[in-house]
Every structure is written in C-alpha cells, then in structure tokens.
Design brief:
256 residues, Nitrilase/N-carbamoyl-D-aminoacid amidohydrolase, 4-stranded mixed beta sheet, 7 helices, 12 strands, globular
C-alpha cells in the first residue's frame, strides 16, 4: 500500500479495495502493512487523535470484512490505551472472530517519541490457514522473537512494516535470515511512498525469496504456501532438531 499520512479515509478505502481484489483473486490470508491507516509520519498528538482500541471502528469493520471475504486478516493499527500509544495489530479469523492482538515489542528510532514498547511475549496463533507468528517491523531484526515463535510451532512469520530506503539492505538480509534460521515461511509486508522501500516479499523456509513486490509501486502480492516444504527443508537443514536447549536461559546445566 501507499498510505498518505493523516488521510485515514483515503487510506482505508485503498485498503478495502485492495483487500476485496485479493479475496476475489483467491486469497485465504490478507496482511496489511504497519500503520497503513494513519500513515507513519505524524506527531504524537496526531497519533493520539487517530488511534483506536481493538474494539474500535477499524478492527470492527475488518472483522465484518473478514467474514464477508472469508479470509484471515492481519490488521495493524495505532492503538491507544489511556495516554499510551502502541503500534499494534489484530489477527482476525475468517469467521470475524478476533483471535489475538499484538503490540510491537521493539519500538524503533523516532517512534520512541510517540509509542511505547509492547510486552516482549511472543505466542503462536492458531488460525484456519495454519499456525502463524506475528511481529512488527523492527521486531524481526532480533533473532530471539522469531525463534521463540518457531519453537512454539509457527509455520509462517508475518511482519507488517514501514521499512525505509536507508535500511533496505537490512530488509533484504533479515527476512531471509529469519526464515532460514527457523526453517519457516516468512511474509514481510511493507509500505511504498513516504520514504519506504517497498519490496514486500514471501520467503521460503530455506531462505529463498518466492515472490517480491516492486520498490515504489502498490501491488497485491499473491502466492500459495505449501506447508510440506517446512518438513522437507528441516530434513536437510536440521537447525531446530539440533538446537541445544541447554543454551536457553534457565535450561538444564551441562555440569554433571
């Protein structure tokens, strides 16, 4: 998507149009980028004015659309709780049920002036399209959250983002690296315009990029996922099978 900061109605209409098209094209899972409705380049006061709760109008609308489109939806939004702001997302089942919400746990750079870090707790979410793990943008640059989700059985890591051109090389490195580290699929969904580098991409469990969107154009990126590739990859790259649990904090000691 190409959000226009502060233009919430236009951004929402763009999202609905793209979501409807994706559903018509056969999507069973639809993911929108980070802060797609508000845009990214706003002041704290502007975010406070536009932010909502998980029970607010935006999540409620897309719960109805998930049911109408018969798709699972991962929907980021600016969340307000009293005087605190979070960069959050909702995971909505194709029945319209709100399965989970997640708050970005590592707030990046200038975001710290407006937003608060979410709790650093990572849980795999069971959906009709499989077991997914959700992270937001900067969260994926730390290996531990992705690993914790993979150890809980996540098959697909989903990373809505606003990722900039200066950090483009990291986008191209970190996403395939996290997929390969954990031998899972990974979907990074980025904005275009306003300094974002685009290039939303789906990565296979072996780190191979299966498909990628343009750098500067809006695009519906549609691709099938074959879960059997996880087992095939892990048979030849047994990272998780060989992972030494004694190296985890609190794990059993090597000493005898």
């Amino acid at each position: 998507m190409k959000p226009d900061s502060g233009k919430v109605e236009a951004n929402q209409q763009q999202a609905i149009q793209m979501g409807e098209q994706a559903a018509r094209d056969g999507a069973h899972l639809i993911v929108f980028p980070e802060l797609w409705k508000t845009g990214y380049h706003l002041t704290k006061e502007q975010f406070l004015e536009l932010a909502e709760t998980p029970a607010g109008k935006t999540v409620s609308l897309f719960r109805e659309l998930a049911k109408k489109w018969r798709t699972v939806i991962v929907l980021p939004f600016a969340e307000k709780e009293e005087d605190r702001l979070y960069i959050s997302l909702a995971v909505i089942e194709n029945t319209g049920e709100l399965l989970a919400t997640y708050r970005k746990s590592f707030v990046w750079g200038k975001e710290k002036a407006s937003f608060t870090d979410g709790e650093r707790v990572y849980r795999t979410i069971h959906t009709s399209v499989g077991n997914i793990g959700v992270l937001i943008c900067y969260d994926i640059e730390f290996p531990e959250p992705a690993r914790l989700l993979a150890l809980q059985g996540a098959e697909l890591l989903i990373v809505p983002s606003v990722w900039s051109f200066p950090a483009e090389s990291r986008w191209d490195i970190q996403l395939p690296a996290r997929a390969l580290d954990n031998t899972v699929f990974l979907l990074g969904v980025n904005t275009v315009g306003e300094g974002s580098c685009g290039k939303s991409k789906l990565v296979a469990p072996d780190g191979h990029v299966l498909c990628e969107a343009p750098r500067e154009e809006t695009c519906i990126l549609l691709h099938e996922i074959d879960p059997s590739l996880i087992g095939v990859t892990r048979a030849s790259i047994p990272y998780l099978a060989d992972y030494d649990q004694t190296l985890l904090p609190g794990g059993p000691s090597r000493e005898k």
